[in-house]
Fold this protein.
Amino acid sequence: MISFSSELLQTWIISLLWPLTRVLGVIAVAPIFSRNSIPNQVKLGLGIMLTLVILPTLPPMPQFEIFSLQGLLILMQQLIIGLAIGFSMSLIFAAIDVAGQLIGMSMGLGFASFFDPSQGQSTAVNRFLGLLAMLIFLSLDGHLMIVTAVANSFVTMPITATGGSINPMKIAMWGEVIFSAGLLLALPAVAALLITNMALGILTRTAPQLNLFGIGFPITLSMGFLVLALALPGMLKPIEKLIEQGVTNMGQIAVPKTLAPGQLN
């Protein structure tokens, strides 16, 4: 007859709960996995499946009571680590979203914005660039890179009471990619549209009888779509480098305890 003790049951729960918390933290904010179109039941099932795959490779868990103070602190630590790993990759897609917003506003598409459940107010251009970046991300096996980064994080930062630390300032510094990379991606289209608007301004001053609103919007829209079509092939390499940078950042989230934050490059 098979008998189960409370200690054995608690060990099983701990072995599943703490890794699952880190994996679900990644799924909650990582690109592709965190989309609102994916049901929560699917996300939970995916998290359990990934945890069961990773579980045999993990070292023994610290033996603490689940509802003790130390156990709750470890649980919160795993959640923060998972959120940090997913957040470091979501910054890349936020930069692409900023680029689309800048291009769309310069084209005059701010009047045609709509509500995107995953991003709030959105224009057609940044929605298009987001879908394009998602396709590039999937073509580079970015979803598998996220899973690999999560599995490697259990090696660099194991589940222990004093396993390691996260450098929050380093994560905050990565936030600059939202503005720098977003502006660089949008710069060709924004510069061309700026020149177009300057030309329209000069034309209006020389011929005041022209209806600026009647001819301005079609010209800026046409010029915006033309420049965007010409710039799309050149955006492939920068977006790929941004995704590679996001993968590198995910690997640098987990800081071993033996390293001080100042020793990181």
Observations:
- The chain has one domain: 6-263.
- The two ends are 57 Å apart (CA to CA).
- The chain has a mean pLDDT of 79.
- Residues 6-263 form one domain.
